[in-house]
Amino acid sequence: MLLDIRDMDELTKRVSDSATRFAKLSQTIKDAKEAFGKLEAGVPKIKDLNQEYSTLMKKKKDAYAVYRRIKKENKELQIAKHNLKRFLNQQKEEQKQKSCPLNCATVL
Protein backbone atom coordinates (compact mmCIF):
# COMPACT_ATOMS: atom_id res chain seq x y z
CA MET A 1 0.00 0.00 0.00
CA LEU A 2 1.50 3.28 -1.09
CA LEU A 3 0.78 6.50 0.73
CA ASP A 4 0.34 9.69 -1.15
CA ILE A 5 2.53 12.64 -0.16
CA ARG A 6 -0.60 14.65 0.64
CA ASP A 7 -1.70 11.91 3.04
CA MET A 8 1.69 12.03 4.73
CA ASP A 9 1.45 15.82 5.09
CA GLU A 10 -2.01 15.46 6.61
CA LEU A 11 -0.80 12.77 9.03
CA THR A 12 2.18 14.90 10.04
CA LYS A 13 -0.11 17.84 10.68
CA ARG A 14 -2.48 15.70 12.78
CA VAL A 15 0.42 14.32 14.83
CA SER A 16 1.74 17.82 15.39
CA ASP A 17 -1.73 19.06 16.49
CA SER A 18 -2.14 16.10 18.82
CA ALA A 19 1.26 16.70 20.36
CA THR A 20 0.40 20.37 20.95
CA ARG A 21 -2.92 19.47 22.59
CA PHE A 22 -1.20 16.85 24.74
CA ALA A 23 1.42 19.36 25.88
CA LYS A 24 -1.28 21.88 26.83
CA LEU A 25 -3.25 19.22 28.69
CA SER A 26 -0.14 18.05 30.52
CA GLN A 27 0.62 21.61 31.59
CA THR A 28 -2.98 22.05 32.79
CA ILE A 29 -2.71 18.88 34.86
CA LYS A 30 0.58 20.04 36.35
CA ASP A 31 -0.94 23.42 37.20
CA ALA A 32 -3.95 21.75 38.84
CA LYS A 33 -1.73 19.42 40.89
CA GLU A 34 0.34 22.38 42.00
CA ALA A 35 -2.73 24.42 42.96
CA PHE A 36 -4.25 21.53 44.95
CA GLY A 37 -0.87 20.85 46.53
CA LYS A 38 -0.86 24.37 47.96
CA LEU A 39 -4.16 23.74 49.72
CA GLU A 40 -3.82 22.78 53.37
CA ALA A 41 -6.23 19.85 53.14
CA GLY A 42 -5.19 18.80 49.65
CA VAL A 43 -7.67 17.46 47.13
CA PRO A 44 -11.07 16.86 48.76
CA LYS A 45 -12.36 13.30 48.79
CA ILE A 46 -15.49 12.45 46.80
CA LYS A 47 -17.14 11.05 49.93
CA ASP A 48 -16.59 14.35 51.76
CA LEU A 49 -17.86 16.36 48.80
CA ASN A 50 -20.99 14.21 48.56
CA GLN A 51 -21.64 14.58 52.28
CA GLU A 52 -21.21 18.36 52.12
CA TYR A 53 -23.49 18.50 49.07
CA SER A 54 -26.12 16.49 50.92
CA THR A 55 -25.93 18.82 53.92
CA LEU A 56 -26.21 21.90 51.72
CA MET A 57 -29.19 20.45 49.84
CA LYS A 58 -30.98 19.78 53.14
CA LYS A 59 -30.33 23.38 54.26
CA LYS A 60 -31.60 24.62 50.91
CA LYS A 61 -34.76 22.53 51.20
CA ASP A 62 -35.40 23.82 54.74
CA ALA A 63 -34.75 27.42 53.71
CA TYR A 64 -37.10 27.07 50.76
CA ALA A 65 -39.86 25.80 53.05
CA VAL A 66 -39.41 28.91 55.21
CA TYR A 67 -39.41 31.05 52.06
CA ARG A 68 -42.70 29.53 50.86
CA ARG A 69 -44.30 30.10 54.29
CA ILE A 70 -43.15 33.73 54.40
CA LYS A 71 -44.29 34.29 50.82
CA LYS A 72 -47.74 32.92 51.67
CA GLU A 73 -47.97 35.14 54.76
CA ASN A 74 -46.91 38.15 52.71
CA LYS A 75 -49.60 37.43 50.13
CA GLU A 76 -52.23 37.16 52.87
CA LEU A 77 -51.05 40.47 54.37
CA GLN A 78 -51.19 42.16 50.98
CA ILE A 79 -54.77 40.93 50.49
CA ALA A 80 -55.73 42.15 53.98
CA LYS A 81 -54.12 45.54 53.25
CA HIS A 82 -56.03 45.83 49.99
CA ASN A 83 -59.32 44.86 51.65
CA LEU A 84 -58.77 47.37 54.47
CA LYS A 85 -58.02 50.12 51.96
CA ARG A 86 -61.22 49.34 50.06
CA PHE A 87 -63.21 49.31 53.31
CA LEU A 88 -61.79 52.67 54.46
CA ASN A 89 -62.41 54.25 51.04
CA GLN A 90 -65.97 52.92 51.12
CA GLN A 91 -66.50 54.46 54.58
CA LYS A 92 -65.12 57.81 53.38
CA GLU A 93 -67.58 57.78 50.50
CA GLU A 94 -70.46 56.96 52.86
CA GLN A 95 -69.45 59.82 55.20
CA LYS A 96 -69.33 62.23 52.26
CA GLN A 97 -72.80 61.16 51.21
CA LYS A 98 -74.12 61.53 54.79
CA SER A 99 -72.60 64.99 55.21
CA CYS A 100 -74.06 66.18 51.94
CA PRO A 101 -77.66 64.90 51.67
CA LEU A 102 -78.06 66.30 48.17
CA ASN A 103 -75.86 65.07 45.42
CA CYS A 104 -72.81 67.29 45.97
CA ALA A 105 -71.08 66.03 42.90
CA THR A 106 -73.62 67.74 40.62
CA VAL A 107 -73.16 71.06 42.42
CA LEU A 108 -69.45 71.16 41.69
Task: Give a description of the structure.
There is one protein chain. By secondary structure, this protein is mainly α. The protein has one domain (17-95). The chain is 85% helix and 0% strand. The protein has three helices and no strands. The protein has helices at 5-38, 46-99, 104-107. The termini are far apart.
- Spatial separation of the terminal alpha carbons: 108 Å
Give Rg in angstroms: 37 Å
Number of helices: 3
Biggest sheet statistics: none
Question: What global shape is seen?
Answer: elongated
Detail the poorly predicted runs.
Answer: none
Mean pLDDT: 85
The structure class reads mainly alpha
Helix content: over 70%
Number of strands: 0
The SSE string, one letter per element, is: HHH
Bin the strand percentage: under 5%
Compact summary:
85% of the residues lie in helices and 0% in strands. The chain is mainly α.
Please describe the structure with a list of short key phrases separated by commas or semicolons.
108 residues, mainly alpha, 3 helices, elongated
